[in-house]
């Protein structure tokens, strides 16, 4: 089943490539059916209920390269299930928003799109570090092609920068994980890349610090955290709309997932010492990203920098490492995935219509595009953290959890909630309000686009109003991974207020 | 006295020598391109077929000169396969160019023979003989298109360089012999030389550095790669470098060269500088063959990791890493030069970056092969290059060679840039959007398909190949079975 999830997308991509020859829209339909099949495969996991004891809902384990104890080992738990669902959902969105934008070579486009998604799914599923690394790198290559082939004016620069940042940091991770395996081999005489077996390995503090840094850099580049964020505005701005949706919606999440799944469980002692640094980087990201977002005149760049800011919350929440903050992280990942995907879709739709992303050349578009403007307003408001919408829940929980660990840091992070409205509203104001620049008649959102946006809105409202449904899914794993956490404060933070919140959540 | 068993162990080399003679006689009787080609291919195939016969009888020391073991045999298979590829490429390449290409095949066969001898060399005499057979064949191969100035220039350059290297090599060997009184690798390992033989070893390394185009002995590389016909460059880049590396590993382990701390430091330096300089020089090139030349300097630097680590991690893992990386390097380099040869028009070679603009849309199949080869050279997962790089990371971390690991990461990062530049160029919209039908002979495309499969096969499911190497691969002296 789990391998099927990935296989469907891989096969779909291979089918979509040549299908363009037979009908212009064939690749799109193939991509949609592959994603639909994936969604169908996911249903049983959601329907099956989430046991308290068993964390892993499903696992596959095959031998792959026995010489080094490498296995094809996939597993899904609540956290990865949510992220996979997000990936498949945004996959639909990406196909839908590219429906008219991509006119040339649509077969190869959808091939790349599906393979990127397959790589992302693999990252969320892999429980073998070698396999994880393979997926980690595999998703970069098709994304490179998406940017390099269908990107905008400065695509060569953006695509290569994106590839270089992620690949070089990936090599650091590869070195770190190989060293981990070698240390495990020296202790036990067995080569293994298996997640669970490597969890048992003990590292001395100095080595652990270096290893942790190798992973940390790779994941923070992807997240992206300051100061490794510079690839992101370029890549997002130059990518085609579908590419931006995938990049912002799911690819950034792989970095957070890596920190959550690997870095913190592998090196708990070091992480505790390192957390002020990481949280500091997170806060810096929140504030710096927000300020840069405000200063942009390119609409996509604005949204890209706002991602840096939102991902800062994720970093803060991860390194607070308690139940509240981690639940907040998961919700933020989902909510930001949806809201940023929607904003990129709006920016892409605008560019398709008026051929610019420069907000100086826009203004007064509300009269021309009332529907699109309303959608943009909805998601701007979601992004700025309006209660009742998804992003608010996530960031609120993160701040709540982080406050118990580091109050001053949290206070600084909370300032982000002031900056967010500023940059979100300036986007609305400059593009949709003000004096109309008389561009002439422009096509507003059609039914297809409205349907997609309606789905995204519904998801945001759902997360905002009934987050408990998501929290239940991810709870088991979080509880389990916090079990080994020695810090009593974190334990406390998890057990007491969390349960109260749960009761009140139920009561609502 | 040589027993029949010994001759049997040498079959892969003997049958290839027979092929050389047959092809030579055939050319003398009747000049026919097709015939010479067919005989060459048949000769290589028969020689390859003898390998399974031999593999049960190894390891075996045949005379003090040559040792046949699995390590040598695996490389011989790789080298012969590469020779086969070069022969097929040459057939298509010279069919439309040179009027008398028959001797080319003869030279390819002798080059392979030299490589085979090198892989099995266990003695300074066979070391030198193998290297000279290989090099002399290569001079002629490089300068084969006699009417082209650049090829001629490249041939002369390689000739002079090789001559100097051979002089260094001989002098080095003489110094070592003068002190230790033996020329057998294993016997050398038992004796620790001091002053003259340390100098001798360094001279020997200089010679080898020339052959492998390691920095600072790399100056000839780009010119020769560029000047030589693409199929010959493919042969030069793979067989010639691979066989010298195979020999170096054996010599390093058996003769105890790697135990010398000074030499170790020098090797580390050379490796780091090769990785960095090779990749840096490639950044600014606009000529695909020169880019590949500089990238090969970097790859030779990467390969030194396996050699340097050998002393710490043991010969088994190091030899395994070396062979895996070489197999990957062979497949991807041959594929890359294969594409260069395939898209070259009759009057010149397609080497400018502009020649590759829009290749994805005009000739998608060749562009796909080329991008896969380039991504493999860059070490992207699911390709053979990644498994090779993974092996180097594993060997390097086991040997705690952090400086080298750092250089490897930086080098790979630099490499990525210029490989992607070519891929990007191919992905650009071409001037004429009409897709041209894939021209060119079926054989060439079939060959590229096989190489593509090999790159993916090694990358996706390397277990069978690794099982073949592990744990039997040993670079060590077998007992004298006489």
Automatic annotation (TrEMBL), chain A:
Keyword terms: Membrane, Transmembrane, Transmembrane helix
Annotated localization: Endomembrane system; Membrane
Regions crossing the membrane: 26-47, 68-97, 117-150, 162-185, 205-224, 245-264, 276-295, 302-321, 327-350, 371-389, 409-428, 449-467
Chief place of localization: membrane
Domain of life of the organism encoding this protein: Bacteria
Membrane disposition: Multi-pass membrane protein
Single GO term (MF): NADH dehydrogenase (ubiquinone) activity
Listed GO biological process terms: ATP synthesis coupled electron transport; electron transport coupled proton transport
InterPro entries: NADH_Q_OxRdtase_chainM/4, NADH_UbQ_OxRdtase, ND/Mrp_TM
Domain NADH:quinone oxidoreductase/Mrp antiporter transmembrane: 126-414
GO cellular component, one term: membrane
Any one Pfam family match given in the protein's UniProt record, by short name: Proton_antipo_M
Family annotation (NCBIfam families): NDH_I_M, PRK05846.1-1
Protein family membership: Belongs to the complex I subunit 4 family.
Protein name: NADH-quinone oxidoreductase subunit M
Native organism: Methylocaldum marinum
UniProtKB/TrEMBL annotation, chain B:
Name recorded for this polypeptide: NADH-quinone oxidoreductase subunit N
Location of the NADH:quinone oxidoreductase/Mrp antiporter transmembrane domain: 121-414
Membrane topology: Multi-pass membrane protein
Keywords: Cell membrane, Membrane, NAD, Quinone, Translocase, Transmembrane, Transmembrane helix, Transport, Ubiquinone
Similarity section: Belongs to the complex I subunit 2 family.
Organism whose genome encodes this protein: Methylocaldum marinum
Gene Ontology MF terms in the entry: NADH dehydrogenase (quinone) (non-electrogenic) activity; NADH dehydrogenase (ubiquinone) activity; quinone binding
EC number(s) stated in the UniProt entry for this protein: 7.1.1.-
GO cellular-component term (any): plasma membrane
Protein function: NDH-1 shuttles electrons from NADH, via FMN and iron-sulfur (Fe-S) centers, to quinones in the respiratory chain. The immediate electron acceptor for the enzyme in this species is believed to be ubiquinone. Couples the redox reaction to proton translocation (for every two electrons transferred, four hydrogen ions are translocated across the cytoplasmic membrane), and thus conserves the redox energy in a proton gradient.
Subcellular location: Cell membrane; Endomembrane system; Membrane
């Amino acid at each position: 089943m789990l391998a099927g999830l990935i296989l469907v997308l891989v096969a779909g991509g291979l089918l979509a490539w040549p299908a363009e020859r037979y009908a212009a829209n064939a690749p799109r339909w193939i991509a949609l059916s592959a994603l639909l099949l994936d969604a169908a495969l996911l249903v049983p996991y959601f329907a099956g209920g989430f046991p308290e004891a068993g964390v892993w809902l499903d696992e596959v384990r095959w031998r792959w390269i026995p010489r080094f104890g490498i296995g094809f080992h996939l597993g899904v738990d609540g956290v990865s299930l949510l992220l996979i669902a997000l990936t498949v959902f945004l996959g639909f969105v990406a196909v839908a928003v590219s429906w008219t934008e991509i006119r040339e070579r649509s077969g190869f486009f959808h091939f790349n799109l599906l393979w990127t998604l397959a790589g992302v799914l693999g990252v969320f599923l892999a429980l073998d570090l070698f396999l994880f690394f393979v997926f980690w790198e595999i998703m970069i290559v098709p994304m490179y092609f998406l940017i390099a082939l269908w990107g905008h004016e400065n695509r060569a620069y953006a695509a290569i920068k994106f590839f270089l940042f992620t690949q070089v940091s990936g090599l650091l991770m590869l070195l770190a994980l190989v060293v981990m395996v070698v240390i495990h081999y020296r202790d036990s005489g067995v080569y293994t890349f298996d997640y669970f077996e490597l969890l048992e390995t003990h590292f001395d503090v100095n080595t652990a610090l270096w290893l942790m840094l190798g992973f940390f850099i790779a994941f923070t580049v992807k997240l992206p955290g300051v100061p490794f964020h510079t690839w992101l505005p370029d890549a997002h701005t130059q990518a085609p709309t579908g590419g931006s949706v995938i990049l912002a919606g799911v690819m950034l999440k792989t970095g957070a997932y890596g920190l959550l799944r690997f870095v913190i469980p592998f090196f708990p002692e070091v992480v505790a010492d390192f957390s002020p640094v990481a949280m500091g980087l997170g806060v810096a990201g929140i504030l710096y990203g927000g300020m840069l977002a405000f200063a942009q005149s390119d609409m996509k760049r604005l949204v890209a920098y706002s991602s840096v800011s939102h991902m800062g919350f994720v970093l803060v929440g991860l390194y607070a490492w308690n139940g509240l903050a981690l639940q907040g992280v998961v919700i933020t990942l989902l909510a930001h995935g949806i809201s940023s995907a929607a904003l990129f879709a709006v920016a892409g739709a605008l560019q398709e219509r008026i051929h610019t992303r420069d907000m100086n050349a826009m203004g007064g578009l509300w009269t021309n595009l009332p529907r699109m403007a309303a959608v943009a307003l909805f998601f701007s408001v979601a992004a700025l953290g309006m209660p009742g919408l998804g992003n608010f829940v996530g960031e609120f929980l993160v701040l709540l959890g982080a406050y118990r660990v580091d109050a001053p840091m949290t206070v600084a992070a909370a300032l982000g909630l002031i900056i967010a409205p500023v940059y979100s509203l300036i986007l609305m104001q400059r593009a949709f309000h003000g004096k109309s620049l008389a561009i002439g008649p422009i096509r507003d959102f059609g039914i297809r686009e409205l349907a997609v946006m309606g789905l995204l809105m519904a998801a945001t409202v759902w997360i905002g109003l009934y987050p408990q449904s998501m929290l239940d899914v991810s709870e088991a794993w979080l509880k389990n991974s916090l079990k080994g956490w020695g810090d009593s404060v974190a334990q406390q933070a998890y057990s007491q207020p969390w349960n109260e919140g749960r009761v009140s959540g139920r009561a609502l | 006295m040589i027993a029949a068993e010994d001759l049997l162990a040498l079959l892969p080399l003997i049958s290839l020598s027979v092929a050389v003679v047959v092809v030579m006689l055939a050319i003398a009787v009747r000049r026919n391109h097709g015939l010479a080609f067919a005989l060459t291919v048949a000769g290589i195939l028969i020689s390859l077929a003898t390998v399974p016969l031999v593999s049960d009888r190894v390891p075996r020391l045949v005379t003090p000169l040559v040792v046949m073991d699995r390590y040598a045999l695996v490389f011989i298979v790789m080298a012969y396969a590469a020779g086969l590829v070069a022969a097929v490429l040459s057939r298509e390449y010279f069919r439309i160019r040179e009027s008398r290409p028959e001797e080319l095949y003869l030279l390819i066969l002798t080059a392979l023979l030299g490589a085979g001898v090198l892989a099995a060399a266990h003695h300074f005499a066979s070391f030198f003989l193998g290297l000279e057979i290989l090099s002399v064949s290569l001079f002629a191969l490089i300068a084969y298109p006699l009417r082209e100035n650049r090829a001629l220039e490249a041939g002369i350059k390689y000739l002079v360089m090789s001559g100097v290297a051979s002089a260094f090599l001989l002098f080095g060997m003489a110094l070592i012999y003068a002190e230790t009184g033996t020329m057998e690798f294993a016997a050398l390992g038992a004796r620790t030389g001091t002053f003259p033989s340390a100098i001798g070893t360094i001279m020997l390394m200089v010679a080898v550095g020339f052959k492998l185009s390691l920095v600072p002995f790399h100056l000839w590389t780009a010119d020769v790669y560029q000047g030589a016909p693409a199929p010959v460059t493919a042969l030069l880049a793979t067989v010639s470098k691979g066989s010298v590396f195979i020999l170096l590993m054996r010599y390093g382990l058996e003769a105890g060269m790697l135990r010398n701390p000074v030499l170790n430091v020098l090797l580390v330096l050379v490796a780091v500088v090769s990785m960095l300089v090779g990749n840096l020089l490639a950044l600014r090139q606009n000529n695909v063959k020169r880019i590949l030349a500089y990238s090969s300097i970097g790859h030779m630097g990467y390969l030194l990791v396996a050699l340097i680590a050998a002393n710490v991690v043991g010969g088994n893992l190091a030899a395994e890493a070396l062979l895996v990386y070489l197999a990957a390097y062979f497949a991807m380099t041959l594929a890359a030069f294969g594409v260069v040869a395939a898209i070259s028009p009759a009057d010149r070679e397609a080497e400018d970056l502009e020649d590759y603009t829009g290749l994805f849309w005009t000739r998608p199949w060749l562009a796909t092969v080329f991008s896969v080869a380039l991504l493999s050279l860059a070490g992207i997962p699911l390709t053979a290059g990644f498994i090779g790089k993974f092996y180097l990371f594993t060997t390097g971390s086991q040997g705690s060679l952090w400086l080298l690991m750092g250089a490897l990461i930086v080098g790979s990062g630099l490499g990525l840039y210029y490989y992607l530049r070519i891929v990007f160029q191919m992905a650009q919209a071409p001037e004429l959007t009409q897709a041209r039908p894939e021209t060119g002979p079926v054989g060439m495309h079939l060959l590229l398909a096989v190489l593509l499969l090999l790159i993916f096969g090694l990358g996706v499911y390397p277990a069978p190949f690794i099982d073949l190497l592990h744990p039997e691969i040993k670079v060590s002296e077998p007992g004298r079975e006489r």
